[in-house]
């Protein structure tokens, strides 16, 4: 888990794609392939998963969702190996994630004949869940010397571009990112504003919160698709939001 300082590392249940992601990154390290190429590939993988779901190829859709998780980790790994940090890649990654999440729930709603209103609610729930995990994770990454500071706790303005990227492009992607994510970021901050004052979080806490990481969410969807439980995915993620309160209260009471 190279994004964190060594003594902050924890068992991240959403990061099961890290090992194959490192293999992919090392395999293309000295080629023309860039982290952005891998970001685009994970976007394509997500779209193919949605296409497969709509065609009732549920096992194939599940495998493509897991592949998306691997490629989602591989772009960051390649960026670190090549020492080419990029705000452009970080924002593009997040933009792809939220669009694909929405499309996945629309496809599930269509295929399972569940009202689109519930699909939208499930999408909102899954975004708040992922944002809670990212909130604590980014705090951890930014608090300790030696952690990865590419992501920021508060995304209020466009960051200064790295030497290998265009400031104009960073500004454009940041604007899109802010439009898509600001309501979720602000909502989670209001849920637990004091978390930013905590020096660190214990490994056990971060491990249980990692069930809200996007990788673990996609794993749940993949398993439910494979087992023929697609009709339960939307109600599951709506109910799964109860842990927003549980995790924030654990943080407030114990840490």
UniProtKB/TrEMBL annotation:
Domain of life the protein comes from: Bacteria
Example of a GO MF term: phosphotransferase activity, for other substituted phosphate groups
The species this protein was found in: Algoriphagus ratkowskyi
Protein name, per record: CDP-alcohol phosphatidyltransferase family protein
This protein's GO CC annotations: membrane
GO biological process, any: phospholipid biosynthetic process
Record field: transmembrane: 27-51, 95-112, 118-136, 170-191, 203-225, 232-250
InterPro entries, A to Z: CDP-OH_P_trans, CDP-OH_PTrfase_TM_dom
Keyword annotations: Membrane, Transferase, Transmembrane, Transmembrane helix
Entry annotated with the keyword Transferase: yes
